[in-house]
Design goal:
9 helices; seven-stranded mixed beta sheet; succinate-CoA ligase (ADP-forming) activity; Rossmann fold; alpha/beta; about 290 residues; 14 strands; single chain
Length: about 290
């Protein structure tokens, strides 16, 4: 069991013939992901060979879904074309769209998110600027390395790609049900709260790791949700404890306003909700070890 991405998921890649798209399609196939095709309007009707596995290229997401039964799209499209690619996926009503692209203009993210809401929210968007989603031993949609950890009973949701990998590695002897990298941009599709709700409802997830970072109030809102709705143990980490006050960090969402959005404020909110918060990734992993043991 996993959330949103399972062994039965049929994955297409928007931008399958591009450099990043083809490289990571090869990786996903090697991980056992059921990749069934991809899209590139200029190369529709052709096939791409991945070490002996030939995948068809379609003109549109709708066509790919009709021909293959795909229910997941991973989007490797340059920033200028990402908005159009996501809207195409929304119009096709694909259940899950994973937007890997970094550098998507914030107004474009706002536009396709609003479009999705207006269309009834039939497509779950993860990202943009995210590493994707991995259910170890089942499927891998994005750029998360597939060999970090085996299947297990910890769920992970994270704003940071690198910290996703580190926590998966440090807790590899326990394993993960699903790891979701939601991205650190100011406007993203799937939130901490969405993932927390799904992990709470997943019978094969016993505990949850939540990784946030300075800036914004997403973690404070997640703390309120945990307090009211989550009965499973949650361990947290906030990136940016040592960041200089007022410093804008690498992720566009990590902008602190006054005392709001600081690591200490987020830590206090989470701890008030019963979440154990580590000061470092390794301490966070140790806290989770205590929970799982």
């Amino acid at each position: 069991m996993a959330i949103w991405l399972t062994k039965d998921s049929k994955v297409i890649v928007q931008g399958i013939t591009g450099g990043e798209g083809s490289k990571h399609t090869r990786r996903m196939l090697a991980a056992g992901t059921n990749v069934v095709g991809g899209t590139n309007p200029r190369k529709a009707g052709t096939k791409v060979d991945f070490d002996g596995t030939e995948l068809p290229v379609f003109a549109t997401v709708a066509e790919a879904m009709k021909e293959t039964g795909a229910d997941v799209s991973v989007i490797f499209v340059p920033p200028a074309g990402t908005k159009a690619a996501v809207i195409e996926a929304i119009d096709a009503e694909i259940p899950l769209a994973v937007v890997i692209t970094e550098g998507v203009p914030v107004q474009d993210s706002a536009s396709f998110w609003a479009y999705n809401v207006a269309k009834g929210g039939k497509t779950r968007i993860i990202g943009p600027n995210c590493p994707g989603i991995a259910s170890p031993g089942a499927s891998n949609a994005g750029i998360i390395p597939a060999d970090i950890t085996p299947q297990g009973r910890i769920g992970l949701v994270s704003k940071s790609g690198t910290l996703t990998y580190q926590l998966m590695y440090e807790l590899r002897d326990f394993g993960f049900s699903t790891a979701v990298g939601i991205g650190g941009d100011p406007i993203i599709g799937t939130t901490h709260i969405d993932a927390l709700k799904a992990f709470q409802e997943d019978p094969d997830t016993d505990a949850i790791v939540m990784i946030g970072e300075i800036g914004g109030d997403a973690e404070e809102r997640a703390a309120e949700f945990i307090k009211a709705n989550v009965t499973k143990p949650v361990v947290g980490y906030i990136a940016g404890f040592t960041a200089p006050p007022g410093k804008t960090m690498g992720h566009a969402g990590a902008i602190i306003s006054g005392s709001a959005g600081t690591a200490d404020a987020k830590k206090a909110a989470l701890e008030a909700a019963g979440v154990k918060v580590g000061k470092t990734p390794s301490e966070t992993a140790r806290l989770m070890r205590e929970v799982m043991s």
